[in-house]
Design a protein that fits this description.
With 44 residues, the chain is mainly α. The mean pLDDT is 84. The chain contains 1 helix and no strands. It comes from Streptomyces nigrescens. Residues 25-44 are annotated as: Disordered. Residues 28-44 have a biased composition (Polar residues).
């Protein structure tokens, strides 16, 4: 019975977090036009 209550509490917390993020929305901002470098440039 305790496991069922713990699972229900965890599910409710996760749902509340998802609803909160959805209500707040995406953060406003701009992205950089420059691509990110994934490797270290080599010097000849």
């Amino acid at each position: 019975m305790r496991a069922l209550i713990a699972a229900a509490a965890g599910l409710a917390a996760a749902l509340a977090l998802i609803l909160t993020v959805t209500a707040v929305g995406a953060p406003s901002g701009t992205t950089s036009p420059k691509p990110l470098l994934t490797t270290v440039p080599t010097h000849p």
